[in-house]
Write a structure and sequence with these properties.
This protein is of the alpha/beta class and about 400 residues long. A hairpin with a 4-residue loop joins β6 and β7.
């Protein structure tokens, strides 16, 4: 009877995890002949989530079946609802509604994260987001429908709630997108609303002057220091009592790990991520490894922890895939390590900021930064070519550092 590796989730960690596991089995040859790798996700595609703030989000995906086929990874379409770590099984629901139970010998959980949506009145009914392709497409369709309405200040105004990375990128991209939809002469207004005192509170001091310059150049306003307490069809109201009139509200209020994380461990951080061992295993759930946005793990020897980002998910996925396969074969696992960290923040028509290091030392700005961002978004974060050699090479965790 064959042994089974299950990978739950086809985000960046899941895709590169599948390649990492396939690489180990390929190198083991006949020893691994009776081990199957299966990837489970709702669709056989990688949604390029970091690009959902751009126009035409429905095009931001990469098909996975040719890539998985090139390395001998099986694909099962469906959503995992329950993980039974004692029985080593998962229960999943297919698109048809049929439920199935699959067993595993090793599990790599890469179910990712989702936008945090607190119980603010009207948030679910009236706010849009760019959390996934479906959400981003709904926002784009909404803006196109607004173009049919009479020109007005409320029609031409978007309130972006959240002043972090996602909020900044969608806010700085919106003026160009809205002019393309409403016309070049429309009086576009984008207002970023945040409860923090600064734009980009997690970015640190180095990028902030450039963000402020971009906001000024693009005419973006910032309303800071007061949280949003309600959303309705006419706009948002803040805790200070101010009402911002806008026919469009975009919620960018932070992320939380997939709820499946709580099914494999009770040791969760405030973001819902599993506290894992250096090799990404869950010590209280034998045979389970976790990677990507659902894992809390140190990325270097300086005490930095991996962030919820494709940058960390891709590399962590390679380690996770390598380790589930190595562990099943009785080989040594690898401690996850990713000492290099860079940040590239898109700022719309102004350009972009590229920085390196956790203290975010600025390396490129304006057009040069934009060129780097476009390289990242259109090439570096896409899966490799669907051929055996390239796909397996992309799964090597140690090649991440050259």
């Amino acid at each position: 009877m064959s042994q089974k590796i299950l990978i739950v989730g086809a985000g960046f960690a899941g895709v590169w995890g599948a390649l990492g596991a396939a690489r180990v089995l390929d190198r083991a040859g006949a020893t691994a002949r009776d081990i199957d790798i299966t990837l489970i996700s709702p669709k056989p595609e990688l949604q390029i989530r970091p690009r959902m703030y751009e126009s035409e989000p429905h095009l931001m995906f990469a098909p996975l079946l040719p890539l998985l086929g090139a390395v001998g990874v099986n694909y099962v379409e469906g959503s995992v609802d329950e993980i039974a770590v004692r029985d080593k099984t998962v229960r999943m629901t297919a698109a048809s509604g049929e439920t199935r139970t699959l067993s595993y010998d090793r599990l790599l959980l890469t179910s990712g994260s989702e936008l945090s949506r607190p119980s603010i009145p009207g948030l679910t009914e009236y706010a849009f987001s760019v959390d996934c392709m479906e959400d981003a497409s709904a926002l784009e369709e909404h803006l196109e429908e607004l173009a049919k309405l009479q020109d007005s200040s409320a029609r031409n105004t978007v309130a972006v709630v959240g002043c972090g990375f996602t909020g900044i990128e969608i806010a700085t991209e919106l003026p160009k997108r809205m002019r393309a939809i409403f016309g070049p002469d429309a009086a576009i207004k984008v207002i970023v609303v945040g409860s923090q005192a600064d734009i980009g509170p997690d970015l640190g001091p180095n990028p902030r002057p450039f963000v402020a310059e971009a906001f000024g150049s693009l005419g973006i306003e910032a309303v800071l220091g007061s949280s949003v307490v309600s959303v309705d069809a006419s706009g948002v109201r803040t805790a200070s009592g101010a009402h911002i009139e806008a026919h469009t509200v975009v919620w960018a209020g932070g992320m939380r790990a997939s709820t499946l994380a709580a099914q494999v461990s009770s040791r969760l951080d405030p973001l819902g991520r599993v506290e894992v061992a250096p090799d990404l295993r869950v010590e209280e759930a034998p045979g389970v490894f976790v990677a990507g946005d659902v894992a809390r793990v140190r990325s270097d020897d300086e005490g930095h922890y991996a962030l919820m980002s494709c940058q960390h998910a891709m590399v962590m996925g390679k380690f996770g895939g390598h380790n589930v396969a190595a562990d099943l074969l009785g080989a040594s696992t690898l401690a996850y390590s990713q000492p290099f960290y860079a940040t590239c923040l898109d700022l719309g028509e102004w350009g972009a900021i590229y920085s390196e290091g956790w203290d975010r030392q600025i390396k490129l700005t304006h057009a040069e930064g934009k060129a780097r961002k476009q390289m990242i978004n259109t090439q570096w974060i896409y899966p490799p070519a669907p051929n055996h050699a390239d796909a397996l090479a992309a799964g090597d965790p140690l090649a991440s550092f050259g």
